[in-house]
Specification:
5-stranded antiparallel beta sheet; alpha+beta
C-alpha cells in the first residue's frame, strides 16, 4: 500500500474497524462478567434464551407451589389441633359416663354429670363450626344434611346425577342390606369408611310426636334409582288401614320395588326407624340392588350406595334438597406450575351428630353404661379422621420434597444454559483487552503515516 495516499488512509480505516470489533467483543464480555449471565439478550443465544425462560417459569411456579404446600400443611395442623381438643373432651365424657354408671350417685349427681356432658357436646359443635384457617372453615359444612321437613315432605327423593356434595356416614349405626364388613342388625358398625364420602341421604325422625304426627307422615315416600339397571326402590310410610294391619307390604312391578311400612301409633323417632329397618331387613329383594340402609338409636335413618357393588362407586345419586357445592368438602393445593400439578385436601366431617354422641344420656346408671359404647366409638371415629388428616399432611410433605428436588434440578439445568463460564470469559476479556491496546497503538501509528507527505512539500 502506498504511503503517499492522503485522501484515503486505508491503514487507519483497517485499524479502526478492527478496534471497533475488539471493543464490541469486550463490551459483550464485560456484560457477561458483570451480570453473571451468558445470555443477556436474545441475540446472544436465541434457542438458549427460549429454553431458559421456560425453565425460569417452571422454577418460579414450583417455588410458589412449595409455599402453597406449606400452607396446606398449616391447614392440616389447625384441623388436627382442633380434633386433639375434641378427643380430650371425649375422654372426659367417657370418664363422666363411668362415674355416672356407678350406683352410688344421687339423682342430683346424675343431673350434674349430664349438665357437664351437655356443655362438652356444645363445645365440640362450637369447635366444629368456628375453627377457621385464613377465615375459611376447617371442618366441612354439613348444611346439606337432610331433615324430615325437606326430604319426607318433598314426596320423594329420586335418583339423579345432581348430588354434588356426598355426605359421609361415620357414627355408630346398625346396618342392613349389602355390607362389606358383615355388620347386621344387632351389631353396631360404620356405614362407610371413616373419611370416605358415600352418596347418601339422611332423614331425622326425632321430631315425630312433637313437630308432626304419624298421620301427617302417612303417604310420604322416599326412593332411589339405580342408573345402571333402571330399577327403583321406594319406601312409603302408611297406617294400619293401608297395610291391612300388617307391619309392612312389599310389592314388585317390573323394575319398581316398593315397601309400604305401617308406622301407626308411633310417636318416637327411634321406633319409626326401627319399623322401617325391620321391614327392609326382612325383604331380601329390597336390598339386592346395591343400596345400603343404616340407622342409629336416636331416630336417624340413612340410605347410601354400596361401593363394593356395581351399583355403588358413586353411581347412585340423590337430589340434594338443601343444595350444595362440590368445593365445600375439599381444598385444592396448587403445588406446581401446571394446572394439574396439585392435590386436594379433604375437609374433615365432624360434629357431635357425625360422631354419634348427640344422644349420650347419663341420667341413670343403665343409660350411662349404654353411652360408654357411643363414646368409645366417637373416640375411634375422631382418631380415624385425625389419621386421615395426618396422612394428608405426610403426603403434602412428600410433595414439598419432590417439588424442592425438581426445582433444584431445573435450576442446575437453567444455570448450565444461561450462566457465564467465568474462567473462560475472563480469559476472553484479557484477550480483548490486549487486542484493544494493540489496536489503539496501531491506529495511532496509521494516523501518523500520512505526515510523511509533508517532507515532499518542504
Amino acid at each position: 500500500m502506498s504511503v503517499t495516499v492522503v485522501a484515503h488512509n486505508m491503514l487507519a480505516a483497517y485499524g479502526s474497524r478492527q478496534l471497533n470489533i475488539t471493543a464490541n467483543s469486550k463490551q459483550k464480555s464485560i456484560e457477561k462478567l458483570s451480570s453473571g449471565y451468558r445470555i443477556n439478550r436474545s441475540a446472544d443465544d436465541a434457542a438458549g434464551l427460549s429454553i431458559s425462560e421456560k425453565m425460569r417459569r417452571q422454577i418460579r411456579g414450583l417455588s410458589r407451589g412449595e409455599q402453597n404446600s406449606q400452607d396446606g400443611i398449616s391447614f392440616c395442623q389447625v384441623a388436627d389441633g382442633a380434633m386433639s381438643e375434641i378427643q380430650s373432651m371425649l375422654h372426659r365424657m367417657n370418664e363422666l359416663c363411668v362415674q355416672a354408671a356407678n350406683g352410688t350417685n344421687s339423682e342430683q349427681d346424675e343431673q350434674s354429670i349430664q349438665s357437664e356432658i351437655n356443655q362438652l357436646k356444645l363445645e365440640i359443635n362450637r369447635i366444629s363450626d368456628t375453627t377457621t384457617f385464613n377465615d375459611m372453615p376447617v371442618f366441612h359444612d354439613l348444611n346439606s344434611v337432610s331433615s324430615i321437613g325437606d326430604v319426607i315432605g318433598s314426596d320423594s327423593i329420586k335418583g339423579g346425577n345432581n348430588l354434588s356434595e356426598p355426605l359421609i356416614i361415620t357414627n355408630q349405626q346398625y346396618k342392613t342390606g349389602l355390607t362389606s364388613s358383615g355388620a347386621t342388625e344387632g351389631h353396631p358398625g360404620y356405614a362407610g369408611r371413616v373419611g370416605y364420602p358415600y352418596s347418601s341421604v339422611m332423614m331425622d325422625f326425632s321430631g315425630i310426636g312433637t313437630s308432626y304426627t304419624d298421620s301427617e307422615l302417612a303417604g310420604s315416600s322416599f326412593s332411589v334409582s339405580n342408573p345402571n339397571t333402571g330399577e327403583q326402590y321406594s319406601i312409603v310410610l302408611g297406617l294400619s288401614s293401608d297395610t291391612g294391619g300388617r307391619p309392612y307390604i312389599y310389592s314388585e312391578d317390573g323394575d319398581n320395588h316398593s315397601l309400604l311400612v305401617n308406622i301407626e301409633g308411633e310417636n318416637d323417632g327411634a321406633r319409626v326407624v326401627r319399623r322401617v329397618f325391620d321391614a327392609i331387613g326382612n325383604t331380601p329383594n329390597f336390598t339386592n340392588g346395591g343400596v345400603q340402609y343404616a340407622r342409629d338409636n336416636y331416630g336417624k335413618f340413612w340410605i347410601y350406595d354400596n361401593k363394593t357393588a356395581n351399583f355403588g362407586n358413586s353411581s347412585m345419586r340423590f337430589a340434594s334438597p338443601a343444595g350444595s357445592s362440590s368445593d365445600k368438602d375439599k381444598i385444592w393445593i396448587q403445588s406446581g406450575d401446571t394446572a394439574e400439578n396439585g392435590l386436594y385436601i379433604k375437609k374433615p366431617y365432624l360434629n357431635s351428630s357425625i360422631i354419634g354422641i348427640d344422644g349420650v344420656d347419663v341420667t341413670s346408671p343403665d343409660n350411662a353404661k349404654n353411652s360408654l359404647a357411643a363414646i368409645s366409638s366417637a373416640i375411634d371415629i375422631v382418631s380415624g379422621i385425625r389419621g386421615e388428616i395426618g396422612a394428608q399432611q405426610n403426603r403434602i410433605e412428600h410433595t414439598i420434597n419432590v417439588t424442592a428436588t425438581t426445582k433444584e434440578n431445573l435450576e442446575a439445568s437453567e444455570s448450565k444454559i444461561r450462566d457465564t463460564d467465568m474462567a473462560t470469559e475472563i480469559v476472553k476479556n484479557q484477550k480483548q483487552t490486549v487486542l484493544e491496546q494493540v489496536g489503539q497503538s496501531m491506529l495511532s501509528q496509521a494516523n501518523q503515516m500520512p505526515q510523511g507527505i509533508l517532507n515532499l512539500l518542504q
